[in-house]
Amino acid sequence: MNVLRQHAEEQFQEELEVLKKQDSGSKPTNWQLSPSAVVTYLMGAKLSNGFQVSPKYIGNQRLMEIAVATLTTDRALLLYGIPGTAKSWVSEHITAAITGNSTLLIQGTAGTGEEAIRYGWNYARLLAEGPSAAALVSTPIMQAMQTGRIARIEELTRISADVQDTLITILSEKTMPVPELNTEIQAQKGFNIIATANNRDKGVNELSSALKRRFNTVILPVPATAEEEVHIVQTRVASMIKSLELPAQLPTLQEIQRVVRIFRELRSGVTEDGRTKLKVPTSTVSTAEAISVVNSGLSLAAHFGNGKLTAHDIASGLVGAIVKDPVQDAVVWKEYLETVVKTREEWKDIYRACKEIAV
């Protein structure tokens, strides 16, 4: 199937099938893997038969254990953190491993209405026949309740507060009233919700205390070490080169290390050696942005260069990722170039390339 992006359960189908055969743990109702096998899928491991499961999350295993364990209880799961900390990625892969279907998804926006959470109507049938089960349009959450699966809600805090609160009855009573038909949808065993939210978005709607109590919150941090972040970028970039069929060489470790170092220094507001304090940009300069910078550079190298990633290819992506505010961020970036990048002898090429791009 020549799709641009496969769902997790399609891309890693072989791994999931092997884990199913090897899994001897106890499985909750409507789970295709035991909780321990789900964590193995997420963290990666070499199985007893020699099969290698690739890591989907590179970080603290305990966080994944807490997230998976939450879904075996009556609480929903909220993955929280700054943008680019793999919340959506983790949400998709947990759902794929547990139910084999990560497509029951609601994308939260300022325009998401109550009918996207609960149910809608086929208005042609509604006008012709009146309220009936046939005129009802089910949502991903309704489908998840009826089949005992997991529904995903992306960017929950982007949804208005009154629409968010439609989840309270669903999460507390495990039922969805349909007063127009004088009935209700009762959740089957295995049903749950994974929501994501970030703490840096502008114009968010904080969750009510009543709704917060229905979630267990797992905060996904930025990678703890530079080595960990470099490994994440390497892994994701290699995967995307393959899926996008870019005619480019894998980037050298040195190029990825430079991008990651720049991002980590600007994110923390201090150079790696701790000697120079830095202004922090308004952008998140997250791991996801670092991956995007390298991928953008590889595309330039593949189609407008010799296929080998250079500082010249990386420069435009760096500037675009860091300078989101043309006034404040431009000052931060120029200061970083002159006080840090310029002084590093081995970074002369990246300094020249970035200076060529007007901000």
Could you explain the architecture of this structure?
With 359 residues, the chain is α/β, with parallel strands linked by helices. The chain has 2 domains: 162 residues, Rossmann fold; 130 residues. 47% of the residues lie in helices and 12% in strands. It has 17 helices and 11 strands. The chain has a 5-stranded parallel sheet with strand order 4-7-10-3-11. It has a two-stranded antiparallel ribbon with strand order 1-2. Strands 5-6 form a two-stranded antiparallel ribbon. Helix 3 packs across helix 5. The protein is globular. The mean pLDDT is 92.
Itemize the secondary structure elements and their pairings.
Layout: H1 8-11, H2 13-22, H3 35-43, E1 45-46, E2 52-53, H4 61-70, E3 76-81, H5 87-99, E4 105-107, H6 114-117, E5 119-121, H7 123-129, E6 136-138, H8 140-147, E7 150-154, H9 161-164, H10 167-173, E8 175-178, E9 183-186, E10 192-198, H11 209-212, E11 215-219, H12 226-244, H13 253-268, H14 287-304, H15 311-322, H16 328-341, H17 348-355
Parallel strand pairs: 3-10, 3-11, 4-7, 7-10
Antiparallel strand pairs: 1-2, 5-6, 8-9
Helix pairs in contact: 3-4, 3-5, 12-13, 12-14, 13-14, 14-15, 15-17
CATH homology group of the largest domain: P-loop containing nucleotide triphosphate hydrolases
Q: Could you say what the CATH architecture of the largest domain is? A: 3-Layer(aba) Sandwich
Rg (C-alpha, Å): 23 Å
Task: Please tell me the overall pLDDT.
Answer: 92
What is the terminal-to-terminal distance?
42 Å
Strand order across the largest sheet:
4-7-10-3-11
**What do we call the CATH topology of the largest domain?**
Rossmann fold
The assigned structural class equals alpha/beta
**pLDDT < 50 stretches:** none
